[in-house]
Amino acid sequence: LGLTLDMAEYLNKESLMLTGRTKPNTTVKLFFSGSFIQDSKSDTNGKWKMKLKNFEFTDNNLIITTEIEGQKIKLKTKIFEKIIDPNFVFEKEVTVKNGNSLWRIARKTLGGGVYYSEIYKNNMKEIENPDLIFPGQVFNIPNLKNN
């Protein structure tokens, strides 16, 4: 068992939602640039989430930690180095193939797996569960607008 950050979603101005998975009923702690922000306890399925209010995009390093069976686990990333432009347009489509996941599609088409939430949000009519996509499905892939 480990620790994952499944989605980092900028909900609106100064509001961020983080979701992930770990062992059920485990405390997960969030740090930005070394400072403790808050913690969350995973549910009976191992899913955890944190909603941050008054959040600003800066050059923060995100660190999420937990402890499982006496072993400390740390997930460190710099996913907030670039500000995500919320003005997207649909420019291309992708047909799902065997072995694809939204994370892999986002990594290939948008430059980072963490952007899978943008693909999911823009294709919610076709995707009931972002963890279950099927070969043959066609998704609109958003691209940043050229200003």
Name some characteristics of this structure.
mainly beta; four-stranded antiparallel β-sheet; 2 helices; 11% helix
Topology as a string of helices (H) and strands (E): EEEEEEEEHHE
In spatial order, strands of the major sheet run: 4-3-6-7
Look at the helices and sheets and give the structural class: mainly beta
Q: Roughly what is the average pLDDT, rounded to an integer?
A: 79
User: Given the structure, what is the number of helices?
Assistant: 2
Please, could you describe this protein's structure?
The protein is mainly β and 147 residues long. The chain has helices spanning 102-110, 116-122, and strands spanning 4-12, 15-21, 27-32, 35-41, 47-53, 62-68, 71-77, 88-95, 138-144. The strands form three sheets. Strands 4-3-6-7 form a four-stranded antiparallel sheet, with no helix packed on it. Strands 1-2-5 form a three-stranded antiparallel sheet. Strand 6 and strand 7 (71-77) form a beta hairpin. The N and C termini lie far apart (44 Å). 18% of the residues are buried. Residues 86-90 have low confidence and may be disordered.
